Structures are given as structure tokens and as C-alpha cells.
Amino acid sequence: MPFNSYFISPAAAILTTSIYVHITALALNRFQAVYFTFSYEIIWKKRNIKYIIFIIWCIIIFWYVLLSYITLNFKNLSNWIS
């Protein structure tokens, strides 16, 4: 049971969130390609895409660490109050 709660569940949450965020980024890419054709190549260069993907992963990991920290502190607080 601890293996699931410490490794599998966080990994599944991070990967699920990353899927949704990457699909959203892809949708924004396609939207800009269709509606803003002339400025598309300025933003979506190969070098910029690497930075965008890196920033997406940093935000996802930071968000999950923050949520885990809040959840753990709330559980500790509720144990302390009881």
C-alpha cells in the first residue's frame, strides 16, 4: 500500500496533468497557426518550443509539489487538532 500512495499515485497525477497541459499547448499552437499565420513562426521556433515544454514541466511539478505539501500539512493539522 505505501508504494502505491508514495510513487504510483503522484506519478499518475503528474502524468495526467501533463497530458492535459500539453494538449492545451498543442491547441494553442494550432489556433495561432490558423488565425495568426504571420506571427506563428516567430513564437513557435524549435528553440522556443523546447523552452515552452521545459516551462510546462516545471509548472506541473511545482503545482503538484505545492498540492502535496498543502495536503500533508492539512492531514497533520487535523491529527493535531483531534
Automatic annotation (TrEMBL):
Ranges that cross the membrane: 6-28, 49-72
Key words, A-Z: Membrane, Transmembrane, Transmembrane helix
Keyword Transmembrane (UniProt): yes
InterPro entries, per database record: 7TM_GPCR_serpentine_rcpt_Srx
Keyword Transmembrane helix: yes
Highest taxon in the source lineage: Eukaryota
Pfam families with a match to the protein in the record: 7TM_GPCR_Srx
Coiled coil segments of this chain: none
7TM GPCR serpentine receptor class x (Srx) domain mapped to chain residues: 4-70
Name of the protein this chain belongs to: 7TM GPCR serpentine receptor class x (Srx) domain-containing protein
Organism: Meloidogyne enterolobii (Root-knot nematode worm)
